[in-house]
Amino acid sequence: MGLQSLLICFFYVCSLLLISPSCEAQSVNRPISIEQNAFQVLEAKCNSCHRKKNRRKIFSLENMNQFAPKIHEQVFVKQRMPKGKATPLTEQEREMLLNWITTLKQH
Ligand code: HEC
Q: d(Cα 98, Cα 64) in Å, to the nearest integer?
């Protein structure tokens, strides 16, 4: 009996050791991929038009975090963007943007 619980304990510790490094790696990578997901949305649904009609706001991985409050206002509060009906956001894309903005607010 004693040996059995020792074995269970051993496997438990092993699994913790196996799982925890990958968890840590994930939490380090997460904000970056959230940002990249959001950038893909901005690139596909916003930049396509801004490149022609609003050249001062072409979103990039470098400047998007600074624009986040404005983007939040335009997309989620005033619901003015994306302008027109040509490039509507899917539910998933809205979520990606919101997700990204929320992680920023936590910092
Ligand atoms: C079909 C064209 C078009 C699309 C698509 C579009 N925009 Fe715009 N956007 C504009 C134009 C034109 C302006 C400047 C005039 C205005 O504010 O209406 C603007 C202005 C803005 C502004 C600044 C508003 C302010 O505070 O003055 C933000 C922020 C913005 N857009 C974000 C976005 C985001 C985010 C998306 C994608 C989800 C997007 N836009 C998609 C045309 C577009």
A: 13
